[in-house]
Amino acid sequence: MINASVYFSASGLLVVGMLFGLACLSKVRTAVLGNRLSAVCVALALVLALLRCDLKSLELGLIIGPIVLGTVFGLLWAGRVKMIAMPQTIAMLKSFCGAAAAVVGVIKLFEGAADLFSLLTAGLALAVGMVTLAGSLVAAGKLSGRLNQRPVVWPGTSRSRPWLWCCRWSGPDWPGVRPFRSG
User: How far apart are the first and last CA of the chain?
Assistant: First the structure.
């Protein structure tokens, strides 16, 4: 078990290191350094978090196993991706994040929420995770050319559009939102 002040100080340094690494990604000259620095800081943060928790060996194995599997998978995949295919790769990786959020939401809902806040956050995690998963998969499919590039028009869209415009024009003016006005 790590002392709380050491844990939070080290966590703060790792966050600063990861953010500095992300800032380095904006320049071609420092991008490789930034990528490596961010990866090392995130890996050390995982180790630090695992050291902070007093886990049994079975629980530790259930956590370390997927981390190692994901690292191996990511390294193999990163070596095969061409730069031209990077946007759809990022979209696929984002879909994994959405799936993970949805799984966490489902697990929390099946465990039984203790209070309203837990129930709402679990439902929100499930909803946002599924929307992220679906949207990212569609984006990856369109970017790779596997899905049609034309926009999807739902049945009844033309009938609902006037109602939406009426609601928008009759509603309040939100800061930063400029409604379409003809003329």
Answer: 68
* Phi, psi dihedral angles at 175 (to 5 degrees): -60, 130
Map out the domains of the chain as residue ranges: 1-67, 81-153
For 118-134, b/e burial (b = at least 16 CB within 10 A) is eeeebeebbeebbebbe
| Residue 169 three-state SS | helix
CA distance linking residue 10 with residue 20, whole number of Å: 15
Average the pLDDT over each of 44-58, 97-111, 139-153 and give the range with the smallest value.
44-58
Model confidence pLDDT, tens digit, residues 92-136: 888 998 999 999 999 988 887 678 888 899 999 999 999 999 999
As a 3-state breakdown, the chain gives helix, strand, coil percent values, each rounded to 5, of: 80, 0, 20
